[in-house]
């Protein structure tokens, strides 16, 4: 089950579970579309994997499978 992390690791922008701008790698590192495209050029700075749009979990499933509350932010920014 995807964690649906709540924010971008680079800029700490909020990324709610229904955000079409959330991008993830296969390890679920999470970035906003702006950082993913403009700063990271489509590749995760942690694993070098491809960043793709995070799927949106149906609202009816969020109660039983809530998004993560763990915010991961790198104050020094992303490489």
Topology:
Layout: E1 22-24, E2 30-32, H1 33-39, E3 52-53, H2 59-62
Antiparallel strand pairs: 1-2, 1-3
According to CATH, what is the class?
Alpha Beta
Give me the secondary-structure category.
Answer: little secondary structure
Low-confidence stretches: none
Number of individual domains: 1
Shape: globular
> Strands across the major sheet, in which order?
2-1-3
Question: What this model shows, in words?
Answer:
The protein has 79 residues and is mostly loops. It has a single domain, classed as Herpes Virus-1 (2-Layer Sandwich), CATH 3.30.40. Helix content is 14%, strand content 10%. It is built from 2 helices and 3 strands. It has helices spanning 33-39, 59-62, and strands spanning 22-24, 30-32, 52-53. It has a 3-stranded antiparallel beta sheet with strand order 2-1-3. It is globular, with a radius of gyration of 12 Å. The termini are far apart. The mean pLDDT is 94.
């Amino acid at each position: 089950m995807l964690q649906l992390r709540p924010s971008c690791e680079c800029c700490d922008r909020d990324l709610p579970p229904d955000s079409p701008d959330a991008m993830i790698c296969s390890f679920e590192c999470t970035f906003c579309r702006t950082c993913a495209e403009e700063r990271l050029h489509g590749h995760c700075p942690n694993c070098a994997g491809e960043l793709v749009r995070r799927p949106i979990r149906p609202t009816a499933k969020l109660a039983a499978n809530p998004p993560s509350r763990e915010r991961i932010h790198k104050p020094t920014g992303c490489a």
